[in-house]
Design goal:
2 domains, single chain, 448 residues
Length: 448
């Protein structure tokens, strides 16, 4: 990229930030937005309010108040970001990515802080956790973050006085992370975002209620699940209705027939059930790494997960609608992963694996936001200031993502290829790329 192109970036950034003008009632707020984003894109070593203000020759209190007390509509800014992505980056194979990231913190005053698992340190630590929603093109040329929401632990929800000290709204309760993810997904859809696929790790995939809700919403997903995830490879018998003699307590219907097999763990099903056991492994090129192509072996079968109706007891379960169970094995390390997907039978296993192994996009977004833009440098403690910092960082990151895409289109980045990117076309598969899931899976009926 030459000096002339670099010089044009200032004007590009100014025009980009005008998208958010109506989020501010006064010109001072629009000017502070420019300054904050300029600070995040600068080479300031620590990108929190005080050092960025010092570098810009401003009083530190100016940017601190911009986050904490100034009147501007940060929720509208988030909506505008999502609407702009929906308008300018509509991809047929867009992937939604759900993951969480953590921020180590000292003390107990920062909104949402407590001792919990911290991915940044790899252990139980004092930290704040946010749930993130990412967006990526399956070809690997564009990725950004659409939303960050603070996770409020139960200990905070039980102490509303503590919440008020951190300016956490009274109407904001504790929610499990998968419900936060659902709220973010619904907000993005309301702003015009459409995902051809949604993918997430086993921390979210382990929740059958989450998967059922996505299926009812019509959202196609590929979910990594733990080996303890349960279900059936052979459809169990379900009784829909029975005559009641009037004696005793009536039974609930539909219900599993007494002779039906019990749900089993996916690791045992894949090891011992003929449906999986007798299938040969197939090799798939799932993505490109720093050291070259990454190949995994995989096989798939029809599967029904174990679902408990919301108003039923723990012992009452039913099979879900049919989906796919995929087991993938790394041929060199022996590592095994399990995935479930509600993709149609016309979908190739290769395509599902490309989606399943695309979560690195959101991990890279978090890495860039922390390493380049100071996502984890915030020193504010109040809820609104933290949320505003998260939104401003997403705005800065979106500008970088858009700039990178322009460089690819102009040929400044050869081929637009990114390390760790999934293969751009189905031709990399080591077996027939047109093979459909329903043609490569064993289907003869027998007990699993």
């Amino acid at each position: 990229m030459d000096a002339r192109r670099i010089g044009r970036l200032v004007g590009d950034l100014r025009r980009f930030l005008r998208l958010f003008d109506d989020c501010f009632a006064r010109s001072e707020g629009r000017e502070h937005l420019q300054r904050y984003v300029h600070g995040q894109l600068s080479n300031v070593r620590r990108k929190c309010a005080e050092p960025m203000a010092d570098a810009l020759g401003m009083a530190p209190r100016t940017l601190q108040d911009f986050l904490a007390t100034h009147t501007w509509d940060h929720q509208r800014a988030l909506d505008r970001l999502q609407q702009w992505v929906a308008e300018a980056h509509l991809y047929e194979e867009a992937i939604g990515l759900i993951d969480e990231t953590s921020f180590p913190k000292r003390g107990d005053k920062t909104a949402g802080v407590q001792r919990q698992y911290c991915g940044a340190t790899g252990k139980i630590d004092n930290c704040v956790v946010t749930v993130g929603l990412g967006y990526a093109d399956l070809r690997g040329q564009f990725r950004c973050t659409l939303d960050h929401q603070l996770f409020l632990p139960e200990s905070w929800d039980a102490d509303r006085n503590r919440c008020r000290e951190a300016h956490i709204p009274d109407e904001m309760p504790h929610q499990p992370k998968w419900r936060i993810a659902l709220d973010m997904l619904q907000r993005a859809q309301a702003n015009g975002i459409r995902f051809a696929w949604l993918t997430f790790d086993e921390g979210y995939g382990c929740n059958a209620q989450f998967l059922e809700t996505l299926h009812r919403m019509g959202q196609t997903y590929v979910a990594e699940v733990p080996k303890s995830f349960t279900g059936w490879l052979v459809e169990p018998m379900v009784l829909q209705k029975a005559h009641h003699s009037g004696k005793g307590r009536p039974q609930r219907f539909p219900r599993l027939a007494a002779q039906s097999a019990r749900p089993n763990r996916v690791d045992r099903l894949c090891t011992y059930s003929y449906v999986m056991r007798d299938q040969p492994w197939q090799d798939f090129h799932v993505k490109d790494g720093h050291k070259g192509p990454i190949v995994w072996q995989a096989k798939a079968a029809r599967f029904r997960m174990n679902v408990r109706p919301e108003d039923a007891g723990k012992s009452f379960t039913l099979p879900s609608a049919p989906m796919w169970l995929i087991v993938a094995q790394h041929p060199m390390t022996g590592e095994i992963k399990y995935f479930v997907s509600n993709a149609s039978t016309a979908t190739s296993l290769e395509r599902i694996l490309h989606v399943a192994f695309s979560r690195w996009h959101i991990e890279r977004c978090f890495q860039d936001e922390k390493g380049l833009l100071g996502l984890d440098h915030f020193e504010c403690r109040r809820y609104r200031a933290i949320q505003r910092h998260l939104i401003l960082t997403m705005i800065s990151h979106l500008f970088l993502a858009r700039t990178r895409l322009k460089l690819i289109e102009e040929g400044h980045v050869a081929g637009g290829k990114m390390s760790d990117a999934p293969a751009a076309s189905p031709g990399h598969q080591c077996v027939d790329s047109s093979a459909r899931l329903d043609t490569i899976c064993t289907t003869r009926p027998a007990d699993a």
